[in-house]
Amino acid sequence: MAFNFFGKKKAETPAPPDEETPEDAAEPDESEPEDDEEGIPEAVADEDAIDLDWRVRAATWIPGGASTGSKRPAALYGEGTTEGPGHFIRANGCHVTTASERTLIDCTMALGSVSLGYADDAVVRAVVSSVASGNVTGLASVMEMDIAERLCEVIPCAEQVRFLKTGAEAVSAAIRIARTATGRSHVVACGYFGWHDWSNTGAGIPSAGGVVTRVPFNDIDALDAAVAGAGTDLAAIVIEPVVEQLPDEAWLGRARALCDAAGAVLVFDEMKTGFRIAIGGYQQVSEVRPDLAVFGKAMACGFPLAAVVGQRDLMAAAERTWISSTSAGESAALAACGAVLDRYAEEDVCATLARVGEAMRDGVERAIVASGVQGISVHGPAPMWFLRFEEAALETRFLERAAALGVLFKRGAYNYAALAHDDDAILTEVERVASTALVEVMEGEE
Ligand SMILES: Cc1ncc(COP(=O)(O)O)c(C=O)c1O
Predict the structure, then answer these.
(1) Which residues of the chain form CATH 3.90.1150.10?
(2) Which of 22, 53, 223, 230 has its CA 20 to 30 A from that of 374?
(3) Which atom from ligand 1 is nearest to the alpha carbon of 166?
(4) DSSP 3-state of 406
């Protein structure tokens, strides 16, 4: 297997560039209707005015302006943004068409939840056919077993599977299973795990009583100290294996050894790494095998499906606690997952994601170097790379200009490669737009 994405430079301070960081969630609501109305410059083009009008409507009817934190205007373009589309009406391949009928190349690929392409033919056919046969009934669909079996064939630690709809649900389920199996409560955690109470602090969250200790990425001493602090109450160590950079095997190995010594459960959150770094997630390229793992995002090409998977004896604990959701086994997302599994069986999708991601990332890096603009850098493994700006205002200006010129880059989080980007014309256009946007930003500052 080719790991050409492994060699990229490491970020100095690995603060997670998550889709919805706790910091993002705590940001004040910048999308009050009156602010947005005032924020629309009078001179904007008609088509931009249509996109901005949707911002106003969103701020009126949806608290924060979007139901997904990283799709709020401030999350897309930065605080004080006055431009930039926030809503789409159609998507196909790697293209999104905005409310004002402008089509952009999307480098964000729905926060990594689409690795093939939008409206992929085989996925659409599978979903339509399953929906036409009745999406849910009072009985579980036979597809549940089919997809569970197929996931167990491709995910190293998987012997059984429970399906859920969101990543946050799946990680919560893994923690519930680990706590049930061990009869303990303390969790040591590194990464972003969604919005549920157990992994967050702040407004509206009852204090979790210190049962979760956060540790920094790749830091063995911090891991040792946190586990020592948990004493005999350690239920699990839960790790997101890639946070801006690849993990040190020694760090993962230490987590494995600490869990073994304590009789605790090692959980990998493969939400972003599954079906991307490798189909079976980071555990497929590592020597370290977790006891439980969670998958979602690219697994069902944008349809809502997540799974907690793991060893049979541990998964049995799911029967001694309560993990259930009305729509957990709904057919459309399972059908989408089936089509995704077919595609990954037909071709080495992850190798293409690495190659295409590398081309895209290197093209943007070339544009930055050629522009001479300072304070922007490119980081991350090729299939999930990101831009870092030293100045927020520069970031906003760049992202707004790039969107105006036809490319959507992700602010503060990963850009994700998809099969749909595997086209020289698209990769060249991404580089050209990055280049032009940088020139315009520079000229605007002169
Ligand atoms: C590693 C990881 N875990 C969990 C989640 C939460 O998933 P969801 O947003 O589907 O609830 C995310 C979302 O970005 C994630 O990146």
Answers:
(1) 4-118+350-445
(2) 22
(3) 10
(4) coil
- Helix 331-346 crosses helix 142-154 at what angle (to 10 degrees)? 30
Measure 414 CA to ligand 1 centroid, in angstroms.
13
Question: Boundaries of CATH 3.40.640.10 in the chain?
Answer: 121-346
Are the beta carbons of 217 and 247 closer than 8 angstroms? Answer: yes
We find that the CATH architecture of domain 4-118+350-445 is Alpha-Beta Complex (3.90)
Rg, Å, the chain Cα set: 22
Residue from 109, 171, 175 whose mutation best tests the ligand 1 pocket (most atoms within 8 A of CB):
171
Ramachandran region, residue 140 (left: φ > 0; alpha: ψ -120 to 50; beta: rest): beta
Q: How far apart are the C-alpha atoms of 166 and 381, rounded to whole Å?
A: 24
Percent of the chain with pLDDT over 90: 82
pTM of the full structure: 0.90
Q: What is the pLDDT of residues 250-309, one digit of tens each?
A: 999 999 999 999 999 999 999 999 999 999 999 999 999 999 999 999 999 999 999 999
Q: Which residues line ligand 1 (CB under 6 A)?
A: 18-20, 111, 166-168, 171, 191-194, 240, 269, 271-272, 296
Q: Residues 37, 213: contact at Cβ < 8 Å?
A: no
Ligand 1 nearest atom to the CA of residue 269, by list position? 1
Using alpha carbons, list the distances in angstroms from residue 433 to 25, 325, 393, 405, 438: 30, 44, 19, 6, 8
Q: Which long-range contacts (CB under 8 A, 24 or more apart) does 249-252 make?
A: 249/286, 249/287, 249/288, 250/220, 251/217, 251/218, 251/219, 251/220, 251/223, 252/286, 252/288
β-bridge mates for residue 238, sequence order: 189, 267
Retrieve residue 425's tokens.
Answer: 């014309």
Q: What's the fold here for domain 121-346?
A: Aspartate Aminotransferase; domain 2 (3.40.640)
Q: Are 295 and 170 in contact (CB under 8 A)?
A: yes
